[in-house]
């Protein structure tokens, strides 16, 4: 999928900008296409290994939403490394959201019915 997005053209970017189902911010669309090209240039498995190298140690589930961070030292380090590798429009909050979405961190509240990961 990364290779497919990496091959998107200006016409594809325009099509995305017309898609009411996504955030239509030209800088974000351009960054997503650029980042796909950067990721496509990496060796197979390199992005996965790089991202998971920032996975924090397993911790207890938070007891309230106030206990869920938006940024952590690990997400800050991940964002800095990704920027050094040429990725754009990625900061520590976005990196932490990626950690949540991929299961690197489990921010389900204590007592949530979802089984503890890992």
Automatic annotation (TrEMBL):
A Pfam entry, by short name: Adenine_glyco
Name of the protein described by the UniProt record: DNA-3-methyladenine glycosylase I
